[in-house]
Amino acid sequence: MEFFNKAKAVRFKSHLDKYLVADDDEETVRQSRNGGASKKARWTVELVEGNPHLIRLKGCHGKYLTAADVPFLLGMTGKKVLQTVPATKKDISVEWEPIKEGYKVKLRTKGGKFLRANGATLPWRNSITHDLPHRTVTQDWVLWDVEVVDISLLDNEYISSCNSSFSSEYEFSGSNTRSPSITSESRENSLQSAAPEIRWPSIASDRSAHRSGMEFFNKAKAVRLQSHLGKYLVADEDEETVRQSRNGASHKARWTVEFIEGKNSVIHLKSCHGRYLTAADDPFLLGMTGKKVLQTIPATKTNNSIEWEPLKEGNYLKLMTREGKFLRANGGTPPWRNSITHDIPHRTATQNWVLWGVDIVDICVSDLDSGSSLLSPTSSFSSLADDYMGSPDTGSPAIQSGRSWNASMKQVSGMEFFKKAKSVRLKSHNDKYLTADDDEESVIQDRAGSSNNAKWTVEFVEGVDNVVRLKSCYEKYLAASDEQFLLGVTGRKVVQTFPRKLDSLVEWEPIRDGMQIKLKTRYGDYLRANGGLPPWRNSITHDIPHRHHDWILWEVDVVEILPESPPKVSRSESLEDDVVSSSSFRLMSPAFPSLQSGGSSDDSPRKSEGRLIYYNIADDYGNVNDAIEGPSFQFKGHGLEELTQKLEEETGLENIIVCSRNRVNGKLYPLRLALPPNNATMHVVVVPSTSRVASDFIPVTPTSA
Q1: Residue 290 and residue 284 in contact, taking contact as beta carbons nearer than 8 Å
Q2: With contact defined as beta carbons under 8 Å apart, do 456 and 470 qualify?
Q3: What are the phi and psi torsion angles at 529 (to 5°)?
Q4: DSSP SS3 for 19
Q5: How buried is 355 (Cβ within 10 angstroms: 0-12 exposed, 13-18 middle, 19+ buried)?
Q6: Each residue's pLDDT tens digit, 170-192
């Protein structure tokens, strides 16, 4: 609904780059590529009283977009979409529910079908129906770009070809409707006064009025850029090249935004390596027009090759160089596949190759104290906003209590599904339920929704209003592990776990999508119900969907209702000490020798003094003598990168790998996540880069906490 709450009139553009238009016969609806500048492509938005999630769309002929019950072709599933004037306002056939899908929307009828722009040969070409897309290739046929049309100039304008004025009220009187009465004298005066200066806004005029795309970046400290292929702009590890990757959760996909003094319409984008996105002058391939895009450190910041001008294009943007070329995400076969160039697209098929979606990773906080520490240029996350990053779908950060974020950046929370729930069931797109397996570790899908294994107890997190924990019938938490489901595949395992400390691995952020929800992890992945053949069938992973967007949608069935206010469990609350932790961190309670010896509590470590770090150095084969307690130091930092630097100073080693020992199998694993909360004491193992076992670990540049 955010596309329509403040819109008086809109245009809808289909996946074919054609506009939804009301035909001149005042009955049919079709697609037109040249209709964007026509009044027939403009639809007045009317909100439905009593239901804030529904709208009506009125065409220029004063008739409403209607999901008819007449089949488009006999024997086919799709049904006609027409322009009609319903007998009463209670006619649900003229009501549409907008459902956000990334930067586009679906328009759903009361019958659960979607407004669909058909392609292929006649009679399907340019036709509009309402239907459910069952094939993968037609999933995007129900997706629409929404362009808000500013018709403030037209409020008092007489439109001779329309049967009614653009009014939010419409008199329903059956099929016989009347336009507002206009005398010939007033009509003549109106036309004479309006003719010299008032005209229908064209696409060009709309774009020029909203040409700058700086609104995407004004509050942003770091962003991700997603191409038309659903891949992210990433800075490669060679610290020179730039490419596309589906791994949007990687730190390499985050770009720090820098504003240029004296230039309000251009920005710099700095990679995680501290280098700037640069429009080079070298051709990508000899004889081709596209030129390379690289990461560089220019001699001066006045070098205009690192300046990019954001230009808004609907809900997307283009990044233009000073030479008038655009950042372009290429497709096709190698060497073009996943490459990035700057070029001017000349073919119709490549026009959307220069369009980018913007996900805000960090935003500027307006109410911080002057002494607060902000995000450093090479960091990926702010230390003040480390718990939840922006949603890939909404491009907005989660709202934490006690922090006043910019109101315009709020996302649609799905907490209303859980606020009064004591326990719930979650049903996937396969009509199967999220189920805790009998092995008390794995999580699967199962059709037996009445089983106790399909019931999940809801817990709320103290101090965070938009996050829940889900506990299985085995008293274990639903957790997003860091272990890959299959080697070489992006999806990671979702398990039942009983961690020693309740941390962000067992916390899920509900995001509303129509009457369903998505459950998002801290790093922007979503709880996903997989389909297909084994081993995918009935499996559960957490991932960012690039094709099957409905696989991350869940229906919430409330099983038990809370009689009173829900219990909130603090993040720092410890679980039973005798339970084996499945977390990769080895967390232990701080030691207080002064208290044990009868001393004063004033000698105990205070929270302001940081955390206590115990470390051992592994030998050439990765062995550590756990019987000997290693040296320790007080660590006041926040992030894993700071801890690594501190350990290098303490040990005198370089390029070390910081590991922890898994208490289940005794193996060493490199630390990949943020440090545990509340300054808990840590026991870590330092593996030198010269060790024989160092090659077994894949170093991951950590995010700052």
Answers
A1: yes
A2: yes
A3: -100, 110
A4: strand
A5: buried
A6: 333 333 333 333 333 443 343 33
Neighbour count for residue 134 (Cβ, 10 Å): 8
List, in order, residues 6 or more apart from 281 with CB less than 8 Å away: 291, 305
Tell me how far apart the alpha carbons of residues 374 and 397 are, in angstroms, rounded to a whole number: 16
Q: How far apart are CA 370 and CA 373, in angstroms?
A: 8
Closest CA to 161 of 50, 59, 299: 59
pLDDT digits (tens, 9 = 90+) for 473-497: 999 999 998 888 887 677 889 999 9
- Within 10 angstroms of residue 349's Cβ, the number of other Cβ atoms is 9
- 458, containing H or E segment: strand 456-461
Going 483 to 485 to 489 to 492, the CA torsion angle's sign is negative
Whole-number Å distance between alpha carbons of 510 and 417: 9
Distance CA(137)–CA(673), nearest Å, equals 37
Give the CA angle between residues 204, 206, 211 to the nearest 5°.
90
- Alpha carbon distance 363, 410 (integer Å): 11
Token digits for 651? 């040990």
Amino acid 106 reads K
Give strand pairing partners of 148: 10
Q: Are 548 and 536 in contact (CB under 8 A)?
A: no
Total-model pTM? 0.33
CA dihedral 127, 132, 135, 139 (to 10 degrees): 70
405 has a pLDDT exceeding 60: no
Nearest-angstrom CA–CA distance, 175 and 694: 78
Nearest to 59 by CA among 41, 46, 71, 73: 41
Question: Is residue 83 exposed (0-12), middle (13-18) or buried (19+ Cβ within 10 Å)?
Answer: buried
Q: Scanning the structure block, which residue is given the tokens 């274990």?
A: 476
Question: What pLDDT is attached to residue 255?
Answer: 93
CA-closest candidate to residue 680, choices 613, 581, 611, 616 = 611
The pairing of strands 456-461 and 568-569 is parallel
CB 604 within 8 Å of CB 690: no
According to DSSP, residue 104 is labeled E
* Each residue's pLDDT tens digit, 575-589: 444 333 333 444 443
Phi–psi pair at 594, nearest 5 degrees: -65, -35
**Residue 650: its H or E element:** helix 640-651
CA distance 83 to 23: 9
Task: Check if the beta carbon of residue 682 is closer than 8 Å to that of residue 692.
Answer: no
Asked whether the beta carbons of 482 and 490 are under 8 A apart, the reply is: no
Strands 587-588 and 443-446: unpaired
Collapsed DSSP state (helix, strand, coil) of residue 78: coil
pLDDT for the residue 565: 55
Q: What are the structure tokens assigned to 314, written together?
A: 């609907």
Question: What is the CA angle 462-464-469, rounded to 5?
Answer: 75
Going by pLDDT thresholds of 50, 70 and 90, the confidence category of residue 209 is very low
Q: Which residue has the tokens 């302001």?
A: 608
Predicted local confidence at residue 578, as pLDDT? 39
Contacts with 188 (C-beta within 8 Å, 6 or more apart), sequence order? none
Residue in the structure block whose two tokens are 């991932």: 543
**Cα separations in angstroms, 654 against 639, 640, 650, 651:** 18, 15, 11, 9
Q: Which amino acid is at 489?
A: V
How many Cβ atoms are within 10 Å of 646's Cβ, its own excluded? 17
- DSSP string of 119-166, one letter each residue: -SSTTTTTBEEEE---SGGGGGGG-BEEEEE--GGGTT---TT-SS-S
290 SS3 class = coil
Q: Kindly state the helix (H) or strand (E) to which residue 245 belongs, with its residue range.
A: strand 242-245
Q: What is the CA radius of gyration of the chain?
A: 29
